[in-house]
Design brief:
The protein is mainly α. It has six helices and no strands. The protein is elongated and about 50 Å long. It starts with a helix and ends with a helix.
């Protein structure tokens, strides 16, 4: 297994995993900036109550961050399952890179209120995770 984890395909998967896990923090930073700009402060004592007071755009930033966490959990499980079961880099690199690209575009669609595109992006991301999980199940 260690030889597999050292391959460039595994490196691509783990770099993708790192990017996906950083995206919610980037959205949280932007959300904090927006809260301070529009509400005058970032309420760390009651952040969810403050989120409920956000305008439509601010609410979309918050929702995009929450969705990013949800997507990260599934992708983490899928990418690690593929790595642990020794799925070849040929079967992991493409769905991992595609998932990252989709997750970068997702908050842009979310923030602009493009709900149909956002749903299509989410569905395509789920397909990438399914690809990884099925590949892991076959390799196991």
């Amino acid at each position: 297994m260690h030889a597999h984890l050292a391959t460039s395909g595994a490196k691509v998967s783990f770099v993708c995993l790192a990017v996906v896990l950083l995206l919610p923090y980037l959205l949280a930073t932007y959300g904090g900036y927006y809260r301070k700009k529009t509400l005058g402060t970032m309420d760390n004592h009651n952040p969810r109550a403050q989120a409920a007071r956000l305008d439509a755009y601010g609410a979309r930033i918050y929702a995009a961050q929450q969705n990013s966490w949800e997507a990260a959990t599934l992708f983490t499980a899928a990418a690690l399952a593929a790595a642990v079961t020794g799925v070849s880099s040929g079967n992991t690199s493409l769905p991992c890179l595609l998932f990252v690209a989709l997750r970068i575009v997702h908050p842009i669609a979310y923030l602009n209120g493009w709900s149909s595109l956002r749903s299509a992006i989410s569905t395509a991301g789920l397909a990438c995770c399914a690809w990884l999980l099925v590949s892991a199940a076959i390799a196991a």
